[in-house]
Amino acid sequence: MVHKLPELPYGFDALAPVISAETIEYHYGKHFQTYIDNLNRMIEGSPYEDMGIDEIVMKAGGSIFNNAAQAWNHDFYFQTLSPVPVEMPENLETALTGAFGSVSDFKTAFIKSAATLFGSGWAWLCQDKEGHLVILPTQNADNPMTQGLKPLLTVDVWEHAYYIDYRNRRAAYLEAVWNIIDWHKVAQRLI
């Protein structure tokens, strides 16, 4: 199976000014494409050749895992962003309030987790098998599915996700990207 770069549900300039067309061009068009290209090259002739990316993430290790997980993580991230504001559905607001005290407390905890992650990685909102919500920072290509968690939301905190637009101001990027999350998609992922 040859994996392809998934189409964005919006144009390269649709997330501006929060995320510029230039950032999308490099982040989606070059970084994400490179993970897909590397993965296709690495799995050719291997036991992973006919697997979907989800399955590869759960079964592979090393470089194959890194490229598959980065491809999965990037697709999940880009699919969760919206060029128009999306109000948070009541079921998600209720779940976040139950888990974190309020939506505002969740936002504070999530952004702190993402801002203080040392090095490159991802900040996730996940749900465990019992339905509990957790914030999980992961480094590099790590993916919560490998820990038995269901991803609901992620924000990319690799420098290539924000450096063109925000330079070294990761916290400013996190505050801004909060406003372009498609909360309806996050709510749909709840168990």
Provide key terms for this protein:
2 domains, mainly alpha, 191 residues, 8 helices, Helix Hairpins, 47% helix
The figure for the number of domains is 2
Helix content: 40-55%
| Chain-averaged pLDDT | 98
Do you know the CATH architecture of the largest domain? Answer: 3-Layer(bab) Sandwich
In N-to-C order, the SSE pattern is HHHHHEEEHHH
Instruction: Supply the helix-strand structural class.
Output: mainly alpha
Give the amount of beta strand, in percent: 5-15%
What is the assigned CATH homologous superfamily of the largest domain? Iron/manganese superoxide dismutase, C-terminal domain
Q: Under the CATH scheme, which class of the largest domain?
A: Alpha Beta
Which of globular, elongated, flat, extended, rod-shaped describes the shape?
A: globular
Which spans of ≥5 residues are poorly predicted at pLDDT below 50? none
Assembly of the depicted chains: single chain
Tally the helices. 8
C-alpha-based Rg, rounded: 16 Å
